[in-house]
Amino acid sequence: MRLVKIGLASVNVTVGAFARNVDGALELARQMAADDVTVGVFQESLVGGYPPEDLVQWQGFVDNQWPQLERFARETASLPCVFLIGVAVAHQGLRYNCAAIVAGGKVVGLVPKEKLPTYSIFYEGRTFARGVPGMHEQFRGIPLGDYLFRFDFGIISPEVCEDIWSPEGPIRRRTYSGGELVVNLSASPFRLGHVDTRREQLATRAADFQCTIAYSNALGSNDGLIFDGGGFINQNGKPVAEEPRFRQGFAAAVVDLDRTLRLRTENTTWRSDRETWLREGGKLVPTIDCTQVVTTRRDTLRYPVPAHRSFFLPGPDTRRSGREALCEDILDALSLGVGDYFEKTRAFKVLGIALSGGRDSLLTLLVAHRYARRVRPDNPGSLIRAFYMPSRYSSDATRDAAETIARELGVPFEVIPIEEAFERELEVTRKMLGGGQPTALTEQNIQARLRAQRMWNWSNSSGGLFLQTGNMSERAVGYTTVGGDLMGALAVIANVPKTVVMYLLDYLLEQTNYEGIRKVLAKPAGPELAHNQVGEEELMPFPILDACFYLFAGEKLVPAEMLHALEAMFPEIEAERLRGYVDKFIRLFLQSIYKWVQAPLSLHIGNLDLDRERALQLPVVTSSDWTRG
Q1: d(CA 122, CA 130)
Q2: Which residues does the annotation say bind ATP (predicted)?
């Protein structure tokens, strides 16, 4: 047996906070060593933080990471462990996103990332250079390139994030060259359901290439990208361990690397593929001998046996229901996003919400409170301020709902009427129109803008983080006011569809039984900027609106194709009405792009959202002519 204990660590890092990021890594490195970990795996770009974006173009941003990596090496010199940690280096005018191998107080090697994602939210090809097969260079006297590393327990094959997502990535030639333990340092953002994709992908790679994979993911939120942390150990297709997500720390498990080698001796496709690869001229990746660098301590390790003491029977099923998993993941991700933005910017002292008594602001409040409950468990409400700003159109029911939930959460709640200011602005507008009357839409927008202005005034004076509360569905079709409810410092649920907002509130009502949630849900959704406003009456039923958004913006269907899909999805609605909904959606969506590109930074929870610099890059000035064929 060759028993190896692998530790997967997640550190909540901040872009540019090199010393603090490494401090977090050092704390976990010492904890892992105390737990007899042999190989400690940290995340991609740990020293510099991720995503660094164009900061990589600053020579100082890259160069100043190296002293911190050396500090990590010095301060772990006495630990009988091997560590892999993400760092950027500048070499011969190029920047590389690397996995650094640290042992015995030294950086013994640097392996650059090869597959640079330049899709969806990623722009790595803009700033980083790619590592290439056969790259064998020196950086400060340290091997930089396509290498394996032999230690007293076996051979490590380092790689970075995207490298493992391609079957033609470095894992192929490196396992053919003897790599046993593939260590992947990742910074993979949270996306709904993506944890299952990661798990399946890693199992596939470990089986296809007959290796043990240790995968550690980044944790924390930076610029609206939320990293859920966590990690996986998989041996030759068999799941071994998972690190919990959404928390800083580490998890560890023991594997027997002799098992990996034994499985390679069997008559597998991997074995025959390796023979073909060698016969066709495949070049073996060189292995750097590090056996004299560090002596690991493995005498205390026990053979990995099932906790339920059976190799044949399944263990207890601890999986969550699909509903709980979906809702808790979204809520954990959003609360992490709010908390990290609040803490890492170092600009704010308190969280502020314009609480309307409606669904969107309620969910935003509950997300903020979830974060506050974690950092101030004794008095979470003290971190939040809620303001209810009624006009003549505000109902007693929404005020009661807002007041009730604030009381249940212990959040300070103030009523600040805008009626007097509303009338004053109407009069000013009449004067500017030369005696003419503002339109009905202008009257609605004035109310929204007054509320936003007051929230900004409060924010400026109190150091408060003004949370924007609009959802994705209504933003997509411009059912929002520039300078009004579109405004804020951070858009919390801007990428949460309206149907998901309501689903989450139903779930939270089941979990908490808050009367405030019940009162909000008892009233039809509407902005209360005019008499008896109901959102679905002014737009369309929200399930249809969200379906239109998904089909057009996500699946890239044209109206005729959208109608075909909607007829299958909503057979109870006549085709002519559905056609009207499609035409209305296309018109509103394309003419509203100018609005949502002005929205504040938003939190990302899926592959589809309305952040122009991230997922859906559309021209502001465009015509809908092309949609008609």
Answers
A1: 15
A2: 354-361, 469
For the four alpha carbons of 408, 520, 401 and 360, in that order, the dihedral sign comes to: positive
Which residue ranges make up the annotated binding site for L-glutamine?
119, 188
> What is the tally of structural domains in the chain?
2
The amino acid occupying position 442 is T
What residues are paired with 182 via a beta bridge?
157, 213
Q: What is the pLDDT of residues 14-29, one digit of tens each?
A: 999 999 999 999 999 9
Residue 370 lies in a domain: yes
Mean pLDDT (the chain, rounded): 95
Element (H, E) at 83: strand 82-91
Q: Which domain holds residue 394?
A: 322-539+592-628
Q: Are 25 and 43 in contact (CB under 8 A)?
A: no
Q: Which residues pair with 10 in a beta bridge?
A: 249
Tell me the pTM.
0.95
Q: Pairing relation of β-strands 181-185 and 154-160?
A: parallel
Mean pLDDT calculated for residue range 52-61: 94
Binding-site sequence positions for deamido-NAD(+): 445, 474, 595
Same domain, 279 and 328: no
- Do 346 and 206 sit in the same domain of this protein? no
Is residue 330 located within the same domain as residue 244? Answer: no
Tell me the CATH number at 172.
3.60.110.10
pLDDT tens for 89-129 read: 999 999 999 999 999 999 999 999 999 988 777 888 889 99
Last residue of a domain, one of 269, 289, 309: 289
Closest CA to 21 of 13, 10, 29: 13
Separation between Cα atoms, residue 150 and residue 162, nearest integer Å: 24
Residues marked as binding?
A: 119, 188, 354-361, 445, 469, 474, 595
The pair phi, psi for residue 547, each rounded to 5°, is -65, -45
Contact 173, 132 (CB under 8 A): no
Task: Report strand pairing: 413-415 vs 249-256.
Answer: unpaired
Residue 369 lies in a domain: yes
**Checking phi first, is residue 312 left (phi over 0); if not, alpha (psi -120 to 50) or beta?**
alpha
What pLDDT shows up at residue 268?
A: 81
* Residues 266, 409 within the same domain: no
Q: Residue positions in the annotated binding site for ATP?
A: 354-361, 469
Whether residue 267 is predicted with pLDDT greater than 90 in this model: the reply is no
User: Is the N-terminal amide bond of 133 cis, ω within 30° of 0?
Assistant: no
Residues 127 and 219 in one domain: yes
d(CA 627, CA 53): 34
CATH number at residue 533: 3.40.50.620
Question: Tens digit of pLDDT for each residue in 541-550?
Answer: 999 999 999 9
DSSP 299-351: TT------TTS-SSS-----PPPHHHHHHHHHHHHHHHHHHHHHHHS---SEE
Kindly state whether residues 193 and 53 are assigned to the same domain: yes
Domain boundary among 237, 271, 289: 289
Amino acid (1-letter code) at residue 5? K
Residues labelled catalytic: 44, 113, 161
Confidence of residue 560 (pLDDT cuts 50, 70, 90): very high
- Residue 385 domain flag: yes
CB 204 within 8 A of CB 215: no
